[in-house]
Amino acid sequence: MKAIIVGLGGRAGTWIGVCGGHEEVEIVGYVEPVEERRKVVAEKHCIPDGQLFVDLADAVGVVEADFIVDVTPPAAHEAVASAAFDAGLHVLGEKPLSDDFDAAKRIVAASKAAGRTHMITQNYRFTLPPRTTRRLLAEGLIGKPEQVGIQFYMPWATRPGTHYVEFPYMLLKDMGIHHFDMMRYVLACDPISVRCMTWNPSWGWHKGDASHVALFEFEGGLRVVHTAFGSSVGRKTAWNGDWQIEGPEGSISWENDKIFHSRSFPADKAAREEIPPDDIPLSGPDAILAEFVAAVKEGREPECSGRDNLNSLAMTTGAVMSAEQGRKVEIAELLG
Q: How many angstroms separate the CA atoms of 332 and 336, rounded?
């Protein structure tokens, strides 16, 4: 399959490497409106001039391709995806689906109308703890879970002047989408509502709030409390966060990315066991690209399709709405 990389900012290097490592993928074009970025990437990756383009319309007029990898800023995703669909191309897009929920819905509708595959790069779910834990829950290791606590502590986004520091609610929007998408994947169900409160500590360096507590109510009475502190200068959690999933037969926890099954009560059933992670052939972006290519070839909807990812984006959008409006937000308000 032939690919065009659209957007040559810092994240593009990852996808150039990942595509280059897949035996069925060949990059045939690179799109970037900023000349200096084109020059830097061309020199670093030895790209010939004939594969460099200012916009996607120029690229599809010169090279034959099957799909694009959209590495542009979120605000550009709708225009880029629409141009790709119009050209008959499939789209593998960086998260988030969009920075505007209505635009995200339009993108999903456009992919359906065009009959093209559209997948979002939610790489966190393609790692060992979530893949293993989803299986353990499906096998009933702790019974039906009813409560989950997730903690994320990190000196997050420390470079002054970046949009992560300058713009409002960026930890919820940029980091939250990873964790919220993992919630849906690991727990194999969807949220019904969210109530969220945000703030910054006195020593915080973010202009927008980078700390929050969010309570999600899921199908079947399951509740998840997500606590994040992006201005932490103390003990750090893993990027996945520390999780504790509670069921009638004990808990499954992630502790610095190690997985444990624990039970403390009653005493005669007390147990504590570290569970080795499942052996998975690929993880992260490599697993995403493999899933995308397989879905296109098999004519099926991929994991993390745009349609499915609307549910994860609704969690971040709903959390921001709740923080701004001081109320519980029903997810159906966004998806309906």
A: 5
